[in-house]
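Practice set, problem 2.
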Amino acid sequence: DKFGDITAIPESTCTVPQTLQPDDGKAGGLDEYSCSFTRSITGQPGYSHTNTVTATGRDDDKKSDGSPTDPVTHSDAETVTIKDVTSAGIELTKTASPTSVSEPGGNVTFSFRIDNLSNVDTVTINTLTDTIYGDLTDSTALPGTSCSLPKDIAPKGSYSCSFSVYVATDLPTTEAETNVATASGVDDDGVPVSDSDDATVTFVDAMPSATLTKTATKALVTFKVEIQNGSTVEPLIVSDLADKPYGDVTKTSADPNSGIQRTDCKVPWTIATGGKGSCTFDAWVATSPHVDTVTAIAGDNEGNTIDPEPSDSATVTLQ
């Protein structure tokens, strides 16, 4: 046989010598001997393995000279043909990590695993493509991709690869991005195999954020000037009202954007004996803090003059 002495094969039940009785014309019995052995036959579909076994022995007769008779021998052949097993195909699993990104977007790693579902066929993967990112082996378009082809996958084996990419959100137009990857190839019999899987990345709306700061850079402020007549015998005549920094508070500025814009202060200004008088003026304040000081000159009807004490100031802070 192609396998040599079949009595020496570990899986064989065949042993020699064996003594067979004369043919009794019936099936079975001591005139027959049966045995078997097991060997693995491999090959591509359509391959035929022909196995011929030859048995050799002698009968119990003697030649006339007393020597043994010539050997008896017989051969028989059996052919085994390997049939194709329908490919179990492949299974592609695609995942995304993370599965959601907040506005305006973020890096996402897409991972792929291709499993060969066959127990007997090796598959060769020739293409791995994506509906958004195209050829997943293109390192120019996808720097850092670990996917490379072609790739042979043994029976029940697998192949894994991945790439990372920035996924930009498209809210409110689109709430998620779904892309489909497809792996294709052939098994070792030339039968096409293919599978697809998708992954979805959800877009998360980022809530608006704002900080409001109010700062007064300029204000129109009303200042009040008040004078008390300390005499109990005669009126007080105010002849001058001066302000730092505005100057004469009885006059308005020609510039509508600076200085005194309105005043009801007038001189000469007579304040009754023991009485009190007041006036106001509106002026632009553009610095902070703003210190404003008013000084007055007053006298009596005999021409005596005084500077009312004290001069007084007001501070304005813009906020």
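Problem 2, part (b): a different protein.
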Amino acid sequence: MTATTNYAQLDARDSLTHFDDTHGGLGARNNGHDSDDDDVPGGGSAAATGKVLVYGRGGQRWMNPDERPTPFQLEEPGWRADTTCNACMACNEGFSFFVRRHHCRRCGDLFCSSCCENELQVMRLGYQDPVRVCKACKPKVERENEFFRLYLKVIQKGDVFDLHRGNSAIPVLLQLSSTERDLVITQLKTDPDTRKRSIDTSSSAIVESLPIEALVEVRQVRRQPNAAGDRADTFVLKFSSGGEFEFSCEDKKQRAVWTTSLRRALEVLLAREFAATPIKAMAAEDAL
């Protein structure tokens, strides 16, 4: 059975820091992402997520057992060879015995200690500990870390929505898979007496399993009020295969949090590069 999240106490961004404390939904029990251990990007213990520590050029990294990055992670960048650079690539101060070379773990370029003094946990590369990051990469890493610490947790834990199909709707659990590679839509059944929902254990329980990398658009849809004056606004997920899936829920804060989280996921998926340029912000949220 499901327990509900009090989304009335959340806004679409800042209050997500309290999401773990208020969320006790179905997804939290079924996907293993129920810990606040931030050592593993996105949260969760190593045992629950299945991730393992591997040794990379820049330090220890949390990876899936097959050591392939998830769609939200990147491979480590290639490091610029010391012999190809005689001066800091930011301030142009020449390297010497007293001015040492330092590699930025996010972009792989060479800098002096002053221009590479920030130490951050680069969660998109899976690093366990804080590592050196140049000034240009710092805002990018901070924005990426915000996604891993707040928004990724929302879609990992999952929540209940109505999936619209034609003129009907079915209750489903929408959740990111434990490998972080697929968005899984699982049909729920409703107890006719208590109206509580639980996972349908029939063979047809999983409605869809969609590769998260195929997500191309997240948009909100404003519907006209019905005869009773109620309006069930929805959000739509569009995939590169051409498929579109429309979801609704009674709690508009839940819808806002999920729309924001999925848009931030799409932003990370589209920024698959190492260049030290700030991530382009997504368009402003639709009015609720």
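Answer key, part (b): Residues 218 and 259 are 7 Å apart (CA to CA). The chain is about 20% helix and 25% strand.
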